[in-house]
Amino acid sequence: MIEISSLVFINFFESSLREKIANFDEAISGIYYYFIRLSC
């Protein structure tokens, strides 16, 4: 029973982590685009 719950927790943690990374990627590209606009 404990193994199943830990697996579910790990699954949930990984999926939320992937979402955070995706959002981070978007933020980075947004900032990058902003700097390119500034330098031109």
UniProtKB/TrEMBL annotation:
It comes from the Bacteria. This is Uncharacterized protein. It comes from Rickettsia amblyommatis str. Ac/Pa.
